[in-house]
Amino acid sequence: MKLKICGLSNPNEVTTCVDNNVNFCGFILNYPKSHRYISYERAKSLLSIKRNKAEYVGVLVNPTFKELEKFSNLNLDYFQLYGQFNSKSLIDIKNKFEKKIIISIQIKNKDDIKKYKIVEEGSDIILWDSTGYERSLSWNYSWIKDIKIKGEKMVAGNITKDKLKNLSEIADIVDVSGALETNKVKDIKKIKEFIFLIKKLKNEN
Asked: Which of 42, 47, 120, 39 is nearest to 87 (CA)?
């Protein structure tokens, strides 16, 4: 199972993730309501940090064309998109801005799971998430267990260490943020502990 740590906002957090082989580092780029939001200039600085094997992800909520154009100039591997998209619009974004795509599907009920069908062809990774945005909310992750897609399955929404074993049987990637914070600030000790647990799980499987 791969790990994405989202909402990174300072160099120490990024280098900790990179040095410990976290697969994806996420940055909140256009959603000021989140306490994890960072400015364009801060993002530019953090994205200049040598990434080794990590991939850098820009998280965008209902982005305008101008925002996509602006953030495409950053040193990102992926756009992670929240909003109303279909495969055609995602393919257009991929071709225009030369970024891989993580498309986020927000889950209120079991029927929402099926929305992946309208975005699957245009995405590299499908993320099933809660409707909480900056708030980490749980949902029934087992709803996606039997879904087969051509890309990778990512799951988010109040991901905590006690859920990892079960999630390793459901998804390819876990997306974690709130569980790694103390008083809404990333906690390096918690990050390292979470990374250790992911590695331990990999070794057991």
From this structure: 120
